[in-house]
Specification:
This protein is an alpha/beta fold. Helices cover 38% and strands 16% of the residues. The protein has nine helices and ten strands. The strands form two sheets. Strands 1, 4, 5, 6, 7, 8, 9 and 10 form an eight-stranded parallel sheet that branches. A two-stranded parallel ribbon has the order 2-3. The longest helix has 19 residues, at 2-20. It is globular and about 45 Å long. The termini are far apart. Residues 5-16 have low confidence and may be disordered.
């Protein structure tokens, strides 16, 4: 009986370790969290992992506060004026549920975020995703972007039409990156400082185009924590998934795959 009990405990321990990866080396650096949707609705999506429930999102924000993190924009995290224990909360694409579902929780806790916009989708829908079988979703409007920017939300670029920048020709690359910066500058009244590569895909050519368009930093989807001396053109992030519980988040904040 003891033999079987010991075997069951060993299997349970192995399952726990595979699930939570608590054994990874603890690291130092600034965690940059990556979200897409905050919503209860799945709407038949093939990517439910990108849809974090509002209730779980609120619990995650409370955990960050409990752990002593201070929410800052990405630009602040990269500046000399960054507070001692920062965390950056980012959103890709610019879905309307940021305003409806995420922003109320952030605002009520005195927290902020950096939202990367697909400028060609503003005031419209996610046409860039429909051919992949994703459900139709409402995007932020230009007026809401202006309103949120006035309240301290940082807006950056995520290209103009969400093309993979590593697969487009030279003219399309300029249109996607420079066009995105121009649209953002027109809306915000100043150039955007930060960028996020569509699909997280980047290469030297795409990074150069982003830099030449006036963006000071660009985010990937490569997991890791940010150190101040890192190459800002390849900024790592930590994806937060729908099924992540609070222990997942605790571990991700300090035990990601790499530090750059």
């Amino acid at each position: 009986m003891l033999y079987w009990a010991g075997g069951a405990l060993a299997l349970a321990g192995l399952g726990f370790s595979l699930r939570y990866t608590w054994w990874r080396r603890r690291q130092k650096g600034i965690p940059i969290l990556m979200y897409h949707h905050v919503t209860d609705e799945l709407n038949g999506t093939s990517l439910p992992k990108l849809r974090v429930s509002p209730h779980r999102f609120a619990k995650q924000l409370d955990l960050l506060h409990k752990l002593g993190y201070e929410s800052v924009t990405l630009s602040t995290a990269l500046s000399p004026y960054c507070p001692p224990n920062p965390v950056v909360i980012t959103f890709d694409d610019g879905y309307a549920d940021f305003f409806d579902q995420a922003w109320p929780h952030l605002r009520s806790r005195g927290m902020t975020a950096t939202v990367f916009l697909i400028t060609g989708a503003l005031d419209g829908h996610n046409d860039f995703d429909l051919d992949k079988g994703e459900p139709k979703e409402l995007m932020l409007s230009r007026n809401l972007v202006k309103e949120l920017a006035a309240r301290g939300v940082e807006f950056g670029g995520h290209s103009h039409t969400h093309k993979d920048l590593t697969r487009v020709d030279a003219k399309s690359l300029v249109r996607e990156v420079v066009g995105c910066q121009k649209a953002l500058s027109d809306i915000l009244g100043h150039p955007a400082r930060v960028f996020s590569y569509p699909y997280g895909n980047c290469n030297a050519r795409a990074a150069k185009a982003v830099q030449e368009a006036g963006f000071l930093a660009a985010c990937t989807t490569r997991p890791g924590l940010l150190n101040q001396g890192a190459d800002r053109k390849y900024t790592p992030r930590i994806i937060v998934k729908r099924k992540d519980d609070l222990l997942d988040l605790r571990i991700k904040l300090t035990r990601t795959l790499s530090t750059v």
